[in-house]
Amino acid sequence: MKVTIKVRGFPDVEAALGGNRFMLEVEGSTFGDVLAEMDRQFGEDNRKALMVQVLLNSKYWVKVDALSTPVQDGNTLSFSNMVAGG
Amino acid sequence: MKGVWNKIARVDLTSGNCTIETLEEKVLEQFIGGAGLGAYILYKEVPKGVMSADPENRIIFATGPFNGIRQTGAAKWSIVSKSPSLEANATSCITNSWGYELKNAGVDALVVQGKAVQPVMIVIDDDAIRMEPATEIWGKDSYETDDLLKEQFGKDFEIACIGPAGEKQLKYAAVVTGKCSFAGRGGMGGVMGSKNLKAVVVRGSQKCPVANPEKLDELNKEINMKIYNTDKAKPANFNIRAHGTSIATGLFKGYGNMPLKNWQLGEFDSGIENLGAPNYGIQLNAKPKPCKFCTLGCKNHAEVIDDKYGFVGEGPEYESFAMMGLNLMVDDMKAVAYGGHIANTYGIDTISLGACLAWAFESYEKGVLTRENTGGLVLEWGNAEAMVELTKKVANREVGLGYLLGEGVRTAAKYYGKGSEAWAVEIKNMEVPAHDPRASFVAGLNYLTGASCGPNHEKGNPQHMFVAHILLPEFGISDDIDFEKERHSWEHASRYTAAFQNYSNLVDSLVHCKFMVFSGYTLTDMLNTFNAVTGLDWNFETFEKAGERIFTVQKLLNLRYGITVADETKFPERLMQAKAEGPYAGVAPVGIEDAVLDYYRHRGWDETGMPLQEKINEMDLQELV
Ligand code: SF4
Predict the structure, then answer these.
(1) Superkingdom of the source (chain A) (predicted)?
(2) Could you list the residue range(s) of the whole structural domain that residue B55 is in?
């Protein structure tokens, strides 16, 4: 399946990933499979740095340890780092 | 509705009467608690013509359904009153353990009215409420007051008090609790001072029953762990527990969101580095000091050893060091923290104070103020010592410049004149906080239209979409937005602003800590918790509607107290000027006046900002209004 990955708020990781929005070709059908593919392509450390807040299809929060959450072809996964602002 | 007592305590300081009243159940089903309950009481009890310092004004210390539950963020509570700086209604939130004790004393709120002949304090010990003389502690600072009252009553009592600034009715005086948390915005401390009320001492031992304790336990465990783990997993220098809100500088720098040199500059590398993470914690020897039940822990305890600027106490938050440091070009972390510490002990809002100091520094540079006015202080940009000394003059309400700055920047600029109004950065007589509308236009729209507490970055915080990456997908604010395009566009600004204002009102009514969202607390978590506590079966629509209903009443109060469309379209001149360098240089929020009118339409209000009858009906407010 092909999923869209969006990244917000991680300037260093964005640089390592080569952008803040890209397509990812994944073998499998779960959130865990997507993460495994990201580990393979970008390195586990870079991927782990993204595990702050994850949104599926602009609508559903994904618990970062809910690896069996189903993900389908054409879905979007959004990773954001929310930062305090006084 | 479970999770609340449907009871308020009322103290009339004039007559000395202390009573407990029962609220009709539908009141909290409509207004939830906290900010909502406060707005409701003000609407019913404080008519037009009552000034903030009049005995007829009310000050309402209000908890909500979340107070008392063992969930991270549930330590917050709200203070609502007619504000001395706005001369209109305002809500200011505060934290630590005081709200928890009040709720456990068996009431949802304390309403104080009247004026005592001599300084007094209110003591609430479960169901027993009384007034006691406070003459001996009048004049003590907020830290001493806390210590003395804990010594007198016992460590299991929590104290909310004012310092000398509140006693002397400085326009932006704060209420202080636990020597670490401050309801600064709006000048609630001055309302207490006007009533001769030095402190409220409270202890409670009752547990308010919730509807579904098993479900709530499950949610609390899951949420508390999530918040802790999410913060821990953040990249170095973004970890709140380690660095407090100083982490914000790392991101805000890239967005040009910080006030630099009274909002004139786009870059100040040494200041941003010295006051930001990780230098903040190192310089201040800061250790996390979380509020009750908090697993995030933005608050920190500083122990600074320094000949000039040594102190022990609460470390400054982002707003404090941005307004009292960056905005004055002061890059000495210890000096900035020390200035903040003085403000804390005197009980002063550091946002308004920083804005007033920055205006004075610029006025000095431009010759409006001279050494004669400043008592010999050289108010040159970056002069840390001058910042500290001027803070003392304001805190002590020293005759002349010190006193006038304590009346607010608008008054000071009017008095000294010579065009200095042009760099007095305020809206509706309240100084603007440390988020730059040129970094995201919605910040400006929220400052102008905020009905909860004037220009306030936490009462409606739409800028956080753009500068802190907050999403509220449950309220239609999600990642499908083109953030860079929308950052400087009015097209959807009304929708974003209104959604965040409604959201903020919900949080301030429940009452909960807005910082939880920075570590992954979602509206879904909030709604699930609300339903488990109250036994109601609300959805996101009813949830947002409740926030909007409260905002509507706040707006009606604004109108009652004389805030007009002219006030809401008068944007500070300085913030209309584009910056010459840094991120988003050359950008100014041109068209903001039209955006306000568009916002009124979006809200279902007429061109004067009056909610239309259909809106009143939609909000189920026919009975109240
Ligand atoms: S995040 Fe900060 S203000 Fe909020 S509850 Fe925790 S320590 Fe208190």
Answers:
(1) Bacteria
(2) 7-203
The rounded distance, in Å, linking the Cα atoms of B518 and A52 is 9
ipTM: 0.91
The whole-angstrom distance between A41's CA and the closest CA on chain B is 20
Query: A64, A47 in Cβ contact below 8 A?
Result: no
For chain A, helix (H) and strand (E) counts, in that order, are 3, 5
Domains along chain A? 2-80 (3.10.20.30)
3-state secondary structure of B217: helix
- Per the CB < 8 A criterion, the answer to whether B609 and B600 are in contact is yes
Token pair of B449 as six digits? 């239209």
Beta-bridge mates of residue B314: B301
Per-residue pLDDT tens digits for B5-33: 999 999 999 999 999 999 999 999 999 99
Q: What's the whole-model pTM score?
A: 0.97
Q: Testing the interface with A: which of B218, B253, B469 to mutate, by most A Cβ within 10 A? A: B469
Distance B240 CA to ligand 1 centre (A): 10
Residue B133: CATH number of its domain = 3.60.9.10
Separation of first and last alpha carbons in chain B: 23
Spell out the residues 6+ positions from residue B243 whose beta carbon is closer than 8 angstroms to its own.
Answer: B237, B277, B278, B280, B281
| Integer Cα distance of B390 and B396 in angstroms | 10
Name residues 500-519 of chain B within 8 A of A (Cβ). 515, 517-519
- Whether B16 and B129 have beta carbons less than 8 Å apart is answered as no
Would you call B468 and A8 a contact, using CB atoms and an 8 Å cutoff?
Answer: no
Chain position carrying tokens 């908890």:
B63
Answer whether residue B220 is part of any domain: no
